[in-house]
Amino acid sequence: MFEKIWHPEMVQYHILSKKDKEPLNSHYYANTYPDVYAAAERVFGSWGNAIEACGIDYNSVKKYRRWHKQKILDKIRDMHESGESISSKNAQDNFKGLYMATIRRFGNWGTAIQRAGFNYDDVRLRRSMSPEEIKKEVISLYRQGVDMAFTNMRENYQYLLAAAMKKVGDGSWAEARRRCGILINYRIYAQQKRILNNN
Questions:
Q1: What are the pLDDT digits (tens) for 187-196?
Q2: What is the radius of gyration, based on Cα positions, of the chain?
Q3: Is 76 inside any structural domain?
Q4: Which of 21-30, 55-64, 147-156 has the weakest average pLDDT?
Q5: What's the rounded Cα separation, in Å, for the pair 178 and 143?
Q6: Where in the sequence is the domain holding 23, given as residue range(s)?
Q7: φ, ψ for residue 170 (rounded to 5)?
């Protein structure tokens, strides 16, 4: 069986085909594509030279190493807490460094989401919900007697809260509720409950 002969253009094509899809650091490539890595070292003299020959700043490739597992999980939780979508598409589109590091550290985005404490099936399912679908789910919870205060929603229905704020309420949970036809002022309602409980 003949050994594949790698030419510079072939190595460059392989690297560029993985750009923005997989990590390009030497550790990842040496373990995932050892034949390409070895060819790059042989043809270009070093992995860094091969990356630079593709027109990619090698410092931007090395930066993924600074993401350790706990930092990745903390960032995912911060994104969710702030109402940012934690779908893989949003990560790939808007958080490339985080996404690439996650692939390297966890193998795939879904595993990291699970490790961060979220159900990835819910993330994948609800990321495509339309404003009307979100409204229906909010109204359904309200009709079931669920406490629609921000604190309860954040504790028990985080993704729905984030989706409603983003797609229905222009960043506001109170506005999202209003647009769903729920007109109770839950801040006043909570104050009234505290007063009644103290008497």
A1: 665 555 554 4
A2: 24
A3: yes
A4: 55-64
A5: 15
A6: 8-63
A7: 50, 40
